[in-house]
Amino acid sequence: MLFALTCSLAAGAQTKPAFEVAGKDTTCQIFVYSPGEHAGLHIAYLTNQEQWHDIGQVCGSDYGPWGTEKRMYTPYVLHAADGTWRLLFSVNSSAPCMAAAYSEDLVTWRPQDYPRMCEQGILAPVMFQMDNGTFDIYFKTKDGSRRYVKADKDFRHFDEATEPSSISDDAWLMDTATVAGRQFVGNQFEVPKVHLNYLLNYFEALRNDQARYAERMKDDAARFASLDTHVNATLTVDEAKTKRISDKLVGVFFEDINYAADGGLYAEMVQNRDFEYSSDDHEGWQSQTAWTSNRPIVIRTSNPLSALNPHYAVLEKTDTLYNSGWDGMKAAPLQQFDCSLFLRQPEGVRNQILVMLVGNSGEVLAKEKVKLQGKGWQRYAFSLTVDKKSLAGDMRLALTLLKDGQVDVDMVSLFPHDTYKGHGLRRDLAEAIAALHPKFMRFPGGCMSHGQGLSNIYHWNESVGPWQDRKPAKNIWGYHQTRGLGFYEYFQFCEDIGAEPLPVLAAGVPCQNSAADKDGYAGQQGGIPMKDMSTYCQEILNMIEWANGDPATSKWAKMRADAGHPTPFNLKMIGIGNEDIISTVFEERFKMIASAVKDKYPQIKVIGTVGPFHDPSADYVEGWKFAKDNKRIVDMVDEHYYESPGWFLRNQDYYDSYDRQAPKVYLGEWASQGRTVENALVEALHLCSLERNGDVVEMASYAPLLCHERHQNWNPDMIYFNRDSITMLTPSYETQKLWGNNGGDKYVSSSLDLPASVGYRVSASVVKDVDDKTIVKLINALPQALTVSIKGLSIADGTAAEGFGGKPDSKHVIPLKVMVEGQKVTLPAYCAVVIRK
């Protein structure tokens, strides 16, 4: 096994060790240890000077949230009888779990499991392999007792004994070594020298890759100094040689990050309309947040409008409640708004509320007197139109009680009347997304789907129905989600822009970076309890029925029809999981969910996940293995990567060797790091490679999509906006738009002939669309002009090649249009164009 692994390393990765290796002719000594709680697992080898030389980290802790966790204490490594390596470590002094992993080569470690124990604070776990291949594990507790755990051969199932163990301290005897002048405790092994060479080669390859991936276009003047000022290339097209590719390669991924939904695409202007903000959403927030008044605001919870939205405000005479929305509200003369709110007055009282739009100086821009009617909570809806004599500027929403007494107020809403297709979304943002011509839309996450802990998993059914019956929740990105933009609105928006819906639901586990629950259990928190998994599976089946069912026979489909959409949404695919650790807990629950879907709806495509990173991450390796072993229930896997421009330049063959018989690829989240023309060009090069591999890569979506410039959680993003307008359509947006509007369903064979030294900076892709029109995409990421001679494809003189260009470090593209003349087209430096024949 080790020899095969050695041969699989990249060519050119050989390196000479810094020291001669001590030991026998064919073996050497290695020491496995941790230099510190945040340093992970390291390997050192013994030199002939009797010195231990560290070669690097091979495994880090993935337990709990970043910053406060991701720690490794007292790692214990065992070389198993089958040649594999087993690892245990303590994650902290309070969690009711330890960490367990295994590896075949000491480099790639299977995603960690965190088996739950009865105690809190699992300290210094050690293990011994039995003759039958199982493992006896012992650990200490904070009170000094010792406990015994039995692990099966595959190191994935752990059973704790009910009684304490009487094992002696000798079980915790370990090796010591001095590395870089410090003494450490760990495990020492004798291994073949070929294994050490394999490890050294691995780290050398990483260093080589790091150097290659640091390439940036700002250095091109020196890098291409010897290149002619003009480069010639020949594109040879073979129209007789085609292959079917995905017709929905480019889509969008919408997640409520960076205030993308509330305060963004969702056009609601009232912040905290439901009075449900809390410190759990964001430190310092409470029910009164975003509201002001001339008197202390009274909040109550008795007999609420809805049990899911228990807080409401109480308005008394002389009170005026004000709301300024997200970073203020803006009004223009004659602008129309749609306002609604729920009010309740004491029985036998007839009261009135004045609803106003008020300018910064207190001037009334628009008003409506609301006369309360009936008993209990009542909804009132009306229009407000700004006076034509008013000046454009900032405003606030104001509610004033006109008579004595009290009135309860909840679910206060203000929308601009002019929303995208009348469906409650901000027009400018929705139009910018629609202009990408996306073939699908993934929602609601991302991390939003699996949430911050089990209690924060996104349940689709809590986001549909009347506003007051939707369950608001903490947003994992540090704010509040009203769920006003819920599954109904997502599906409606997909229909409005002609994109297929791709809802993503949790795989029965929360985000692996979740904070500890009340029992101190962080990360995936053991997943949804198995006794509750059948209910959770049914919840997902109900979602499919809600989207596609017949209202005459299905209560879930009737809910959709009652909301205004009697015809089915024609859902064809769902995602299960997002960037999850491919742990035992995950795999068991994913199988249950995916099997339930396939058993009842075999036509629905199921998209799995392979973690947050590309090859060679542990989740990627294990996720792909799991997907290939479960092809009946996994049609596609969701890959994610955010990388440097240099990575994209040097990995244009990334999918060329993928298994064509394996599940297909959905590149669900990807972007190069930055928002300049350079990023747009390297992403265009990557899209050429995705199109070339369109028989493997079915879909791809840049991420994140939207960012409010004053509330940024992530960088870069595709579209930046503020309260009033779009502030930046990034160069990456232009690349996505170019591909989204020029896709095809057949790939036409072609080849580029140009100097080998610059081949990675130039790319072409030729496709045919559903109307059999030929589309040629050309990318020139060189600092020199490029003339491309086109053979095998007749293009009329004067045919336009249109796209964009610009300086690599610019944040703005320059529209570009050049003409084909005599089967040739000359592209300026740094540009991307499309030719439609």
Automatic annotation (TrEMBL):
GO MF term set: alpha-L-arabinofuranosidase activity
Entries under SUPFAM superfamilies matching the protein: (Trans)glycosidases (SSF51445), Arabinanase/levansucrase/invertase (SSF75005)
Catalyzed chemical reaction(s): Hydrolysis of terminal non-reducing alpha-L-arabinofuranoside residues in alpha-L-arabinosides
Superkingdom of origin: Bacteria
Keyword terms, alphabetized: Hydrolase, Signal
Gene3D superfamilies: Glycosidases, Glycosyl hydrolase domain, family 43
UniProt record, GO biological process: L-arabinose metabolic process
Occurrences of domain Alpha-L-arabinofuranosidase C-terminal (ranges): 668-831
InterPro entries: Alpha-L-AF_C (IPR010720), ASD1_cat (IPR055235), BT_3657-like_N (IPR055133), GH (IPR017853), Glyco_hydro_beta-prop_sf (IPR023296), Glycosyl_Hydrolase_51 (IPR051563)
The enzyme's E.C. designation: 3.2.1.55
SMART domains reported for this sequence: Alpha-L-AF_C
Family affiliation: Belongs to the glycosyl hydrolase 51 family.
PANTHER family: ALPHA-L-ARABINOFURANOSIDASE 1, SECRETED ARABINOSIDASE
Protein name: non-reducing end alpha-L-arabinofuranosidase
